[in-house]
Write a structure and sequence with these properties.
Blueprint (H helix, E strand, L loop, with lengths): L6 E2 L5 E2 L18 H20 L3 H24 L3 H27 L6 H22 L9 H10 L11 H20 L3 H23 L5 H27 L15 H4 L2 H11 L2 H15 L12 H4 L31
Antiparallel strand pairs: 1-2
Helix pairs in contact: 1-2, 1-8, 1-10, 2-3, 3-4, 4-6, 6-7, 7-8, 8-10, 8-11
Amino acid sequence: MMKESLVKGDQGRVYWGDYFYITQEWSLSYYLTVRGSENFHIYLWIAKDLAWTQNWYWPAMMFGSSALAWCLVLAFNAIRSRCIEEMYMLVALVMWLSANFLWMAGEVFNGDDDYVVPRVGYIMESAISWILFYHVILRPCKIIPHDDAMNKRYENTGLKSRFSYFENWRQYEHAHTLCWLGKDLSWDQLNPYTWILCLIPTVSIAADFIWTCYHTKRMMVDTVHYFSQLMWVFGNMVWALGNIFVNEDGDDSAFLMWHSSASSRAQCRWYASWILFAAYFPLVVLYCIWVPLTFMGEIRPPPPPRSDSIAESNTTSIVEMESAPKDSMSPIIHRPDEEGGN
């Protein structure tokens, strides 16, 4: 249960109870950390999908190209962390994003995506096969070594999947990627059965991210980002519902968000654009709190434990996290020597 709404300690520390507070300052260097770069990638993906629903050519191409280019930052962090598994999964992510970009370009550029749909399907199938190959062959045969350092970093933050199959939180996120890929492939192929089959775990895991992150200490920033991600999932879901179930005549016309009419309200795509737009609201609220508190000097890391008896207390949430790296409010994977992390 969340405790007092706002507590300010002797050292200028500001936090929101045990489960909902910020202990790390915001900085531009945050977006170059592992978690920060992934969160920034979400901003680009949502913007690309929003522009796509509106059939805005230049914004769609700009944000889509930026999302592809940002993969270089993700690759840099994966190489720097020397995590072979992360490098491997990044290949599937690039294939997924490339297929999504091709799908979008076929519609906003040519006005018809029928030509690219088969090619999009091939790329997504390759991405799914790539991830399944890891789970069926590489992991059971231990071809890709276990990353004990990554596992330890997740343990320090307290984030742990409810499924014992996953050794760390990052593997749980990769499972979410696999489900989302299956959902997108089913949408591309207009297959209602596999779409529903993949939609259920995609939404369930996205909701579980929020639940677990909210009930883990130092996780306000990531909880908000996971909430925006869930809204992104809902936006895609509503759009796909229109394509697969509602618009039997194949009509998927784009209407401007602010153009409310009988025709626009008959399109699930129009509602999807509003949901995607609303996905930025939690982020705006977060930054309206996070950035001012940083510049006001009101964000302080928790003090060290005063005694061993405090560390052993089950009611003390701050001390339980002291063994974690300073920037480990993100669920991950930040290296202890990273600076400016969340």
